[in-house]
Design goal:
This protein has nine helices and six strands, in the order H-H-E-H-H-E-H-E-H-E-H-H-E-E-H. With 247 residues, the protein is of the alpha/beta class. It has a single domain, classed as Decaprenyl diphosphate synthase-like (Undecaprenyl pyrophosphate synthetase, 3-Layer(aba) Sandwich).
Length: 247
């Protein structure tokens, strides 16, 4: 029986209770398909990105309902700078506007904001907004929402190596735990589940170190159409897998 059909047999509370027993702590998502969603509807790509923001809010609330502690979203990669300047400027403005306008609600919902990536390259206005959201939500105890902005896993690992050398760490002192502590994600656990929307089957330079043993779930659903039920399906499939950790 398909997961979609199985879900219909139970109340949402029963499904949520089952999800909470999966020991799933951290979901990472590659939010893909905004532009294709818009193109299929003969809309500007910007409309797809705006609709994607609505999905982001819904999925954050769903993670809170499901008892998921950590949610990490790939918002803008180091490679995305190669897009048309008009689209890049729009995305940066959309990030700034969204974070500023939604901060009160995020804080009210007990969400703790976090960001990873090379944030130094962002404009000062956006950096101020990021810092303000971190400061405002720092004492919250709900979902830790990490947004990857100007993020690339190869850059992250390269920077970690440079900083290890800079700190004078000796060769025999270097181990996996130490390297992890030099990554942007040093304060959050590795993802249990990686979700990619839109059907593409690639990692796209995202959390290469951290997803070494994550379960990967690919859905053909475009990000603007990904909703609470779609997340539920992904989590239920995760729950039905056996994690072997290389054993």
């Amino acid at each position: 029986m398909e997961i979609k059909e199985a879900i219909k047999q139970y109340s949402e509370k029963e499904v949520i209770d089952a999800i909470k027993n999966t020991n799933l702590k951290h979901i990472a998502i590659i939010m893909d398909g905004n532009r294709r969603w818009a193109k299929e509807r003969m809309l500007p790509s910007m409309m797809g990105h705006k609709r994607g923001v609505d999905t982001l809010k819904k999925i954050t609330r769903a993670c809170s309902d499901f008892g998921i502690k950590y949610l990490t979203l790939y918002a803008f990669s180091t490679e995305n700078w190669n897009r048309k300047k008009e689209e890049v400027d729009f995305l940066m403005d959309l990030l700034a506007t969204t974070l500023k306008s939604e901060l009160k609600e995020l804080n009210g919902n007990n969400v703790k904001m976090n960001y990873i990536g090379n944030l130094n390259q962002l404009n000062q206005n956006l950096k101020n907004i990021l810092n303000d959201s971190i400061e405002t939500t720092k004492n919250n105890t709900g979902v830790v929402l990490t947004v990857a902005i100007n993020y690339g896993a190869r850059d992250e690992i390269t920077n970690a190596i440079k900083n290890i050398i800079k700190d004078g760490i000796k060769e025999d002192e270097i181990n996996q735990s130490l390297i992890s502590n030099y990554l942007y994600t040093k304060d959050i656990p590795d993802p249990d589940l990686l979700i990619r929307t839109s059907g593409e089957k690639r990692i796209s330079n995202y959390l290469l170190w951290q997803i070494a043993y994550s379960e990967i779930y690919i859905t053909d659903t475009y990000w603007p159409e990904f909703d609470k039920n779609a997340l539920m399906e992904a989590i239920i499939e995760f729950a039905n897998r056996q994690r072997r950790w290389g054993k």
